Amino acid sequence: MKVTQALISVSEKRGTVDFARALHQLGVKLLSTGGTAKLLRDAGLPVTDVSDYTGFPEMLDGRVKTLHPKVHGGILGRRDLAEHRQTMERHDIPAIDLVVVNLYPFRETVAKPGCTLEDAIENIDIGGPTMVRAAAKNHGNEQGGVGIVTDPEDYGQIIEELQSNDGALSYRTRFELAKKAFTHTARYDSAIANWLTGLDADNKPGPFPDALQLAFDKVETLRYGENPHQQAAFYRETVAVPGSIASYRQLQGKELSYNNIADADAAWECVKAFDAAAGLATCVIVKHANPCGVALGASASEAYRKAFSTDPTSAFGGIIAFNCAIDQAAAEAVAGQFAEVIIAPEITEEARAVFAAKQNLRVLIVPLGHPGGKCAGAFDYKRVGGGLLVQSADEARIAQSDIKVVSKRVPTEAEMRDLLFAWNVAKYVKSNAIVYCKDGMTVGVGAGQMSRVDSARIAAIKAENAKLTVKGSVVASDAFFPFRDGLDVLAQAGATAVIQPGGSVRDAEVIAAADEQGVAMVFTGFRHFRH
Ligand SMILES: NC(=O)c1ncn([C@@H]2O[C@H](COP(=O)(O)O)[C@@H](O)[C@H]2O)c1NC=O
Predict the structure, then answer these.
(1) What is the ipTM of this complex?
(2) Model pLDDT for residues 371-412, shown as the tens digit of each residue
(3) Which residues form a coiled coil (predicted)?
(4) Residue nearest atom 5 in ligand 1 by C-alpha distance
(5) Would the CB of 127 count as within 6 Å of ligand 1?
(6) What does the pLDDT read at residue 498?
(7) FRET pair for 195, CA 20 to 30 Å: which of 87, 107, 111, 137?
(8) Which helix (H) or strand (E) holds 322?
(9) Angle made by CA atoms 374, 378, 383, in degrees to the nearest 5
(10) Whose CA is closest to atom 17 on ligand 1?
(11) Is residue 346 part of a domain?
(12) Where in 59-156 does DSSP place strands (E)?
């Protein structure tokens, strides 16, 4: 069925004139609301104002423009039912076969600083979503129906189809457009509900709405979940989070698995915490969501070699992330081990050629986002049985000036550099986290233990297994030592300096233990639990 008449009513006017012109050239009659009609008329296109069409003026400050039976009857009447066609004829309601609508910019309005409740309310579109939903509902069947266009990005494709299909839209296209349209209005209403139910007693917007609506788009269905008997898919936030793993571009390799994506996220978040602009490359190797090696280097290959040496056994099948370009030397070094995924903001042509020889290796490019790479303002979500925990991301960072020395001995300059490095790593290690470091690399990582003392012992054992020594190293503990026992394990293993939050009721006992053993100890004042 040929499209004979289109109703165009858009707030976002990008591409509208060209689209309307192409429709006109296809013989489609144009019907439009105030601002849109003016835009088209000024461009020399013949257009009928909806108010002339219905015989009713746009009124009540634009709150009522298209809400009229002549508009909605033209959209909602079924083309395949004789009775509907007769009713439309009897009431002089011509069919409207194409509806082109995008809505008042609610999200953009409330994002403006100082947006009042009144501004927000006036930017809730009523007539637009009504037309979008009506047209989407009546997308019809093979006998005919309405096309609903909500995204200016689709204009080109719609025109191409009309041109090649004798001025008609296929049922398949109308159905796909309808799905997109219902998603569009659902998200529009979600944004309104999130904002309104997030207002506090003074009508100031807050971060946690009473009713939380989340919006994600499917990137792909995955082969399986954490285990082969689980189904899985990967979704990306509708409003892109710059610098996040979800913005990956895969250069080569097998399809990503559920665990690949989870571990790639852990590796990427950790490596981004180190600013490449500070002049050193960073490499992070992750296994089962924990870093098993993190290191700084003068080059990417040096950073990789150091990170690998922390725990070569665990690094097998790991996810390897860099905060800088991977060059040929780094690619050749990495290619020497079995890895699941390689991630970097940039990969040189020479390095790509090296990876290309390993067909299955998954290689991802992820833009760093802003300096230091943080996804500012993003929330963390954690599913629990029957609920969702929501928190702001752990964006706390420490500078040397924030650190309080609590021991008699003050850390040396080299110890202080390593302490800051170790603290940065500990944030990405599952609690209880104990991280031994020396010369800008991890030498032992204790992760995910129920006891901090066990974590301290395990990290030292792992260092020994990797033929590294923790003697003369520094240690970060993600949370305070509840007793002196944990500190004693570190000191006896040969650590010379410790960074930890402090704040235990037994801090005095722990400080005394450090002083007894000549260990320099500093407090950060905040912890980095990670579960
Ligand atoms: N009230 C109505 O009947 C109505 N009909 C269409 N609109 C919206 O008015 C906007 C276009 O207006 P204009 O063509 O005047 O620039 C579109 O975002 C459209 O969704 C309406 N506005 C709000 O509810």
Answers:
(1) 0.84
(2) 544 455 678 999 999 999 999 999 898 988 999 999 999 999
(3) none
(4) 127
(5) yes
(6) 98
(7) 137
(8) strand 318-322
(9) 125
(10) 10
(11) yes
(12) 98-102, 147-149
Q: 425 is written with which tokens?
A: 């790593």
pLDDT digits 0-9 by tens, 165-198 = 999 999 999 999 999 999 999 999 999 999 999 9
- The whole domain housing 262 covers 249-365
**56, 66, 75: which to mutate for ligand 1, most atoms within 8 A of CB?**
66
Instruction: Specify if 180 maps to a domain.
Output: yes
Could you tell me if residue 102 is inside a domain?
A: yes
How far CA 94 is from CA of 6, 79, 301, in Å, comes to: 11, 11, 70
Ligand 1 and 297: CB distance under 6 A: no
Q: Is the CB of 66 under 6 A from ligand 1?
A: yes
Interval 292-315: pLDDT, tens: 999 999 999 999 999 999 999 999
Which of 365, 385, 411 terminates a domain? The answer is 365
Same domain, 161 and 31: yes
Cβ–ligand 1 contact at 185 (below 6 Å): no
- Judged against a pLDDT cut of 90, whether residue 491 lies above it is answered with yes
Ligand 1, atom 21: nearest CA belongs to which residue?
A: 127
Asked if the peptide bond before residue 432 counts as cis, ω within 30 degrees of 0, the response is: yes
The rounded distance, in Å, linking the Cα atoms of 504 and 512 is 13
> How many domains, the chain?
3
| pLDDT for residue 76 is more than 60 | yes
Clarify whether residues 404 and 361 are in a common domain: no
CB 11 near ligand 1, within 6 Å: yes
Index of the ligand 1 atom closest to the CA of residue 66:
3
- 126 Cα–ligand 1 center, Å: 8
Ligand 1 pocket mutation, candidates 17, 65, 133, criterion most atoms within 8 A of CB: 65
- R_g of the chain computed on alpha carbons: 30
Residue 373 has a pLDDT of 46
pLDDT value at 317 more than 80: yes
| CB of 257 sitting under 6 A from ligand 1 | no
> What's 2's DSSP letter?
B
In a domain, 473, yes or no: yes
Name the pTM for this structure. 0.90
Whole-number average pLDDT of the chain: 95
| Sign for the pseudo-dihedral over CA of 418, 424, 428, 430 | positive
Read off the CATH number of the domain in which 161 is found. 3.40.50.1380
Active-site residues: which are they? 137, 288
- Our answer on whether the CB atom of 35 is closer than 6 Å to any ligand 1 atom is yes
Centroid of ligand 1 to alpha carbon of 324 (angstroms):
48
Atom of ligand 1 nearest to the CA of 67: 3
List pLDDT tens digits, range 269-298. 999 999 988 889 999 999 999 999 999 999
**C-alpha–C-alpha distance, residues 459 and 446, integer Å:** 4
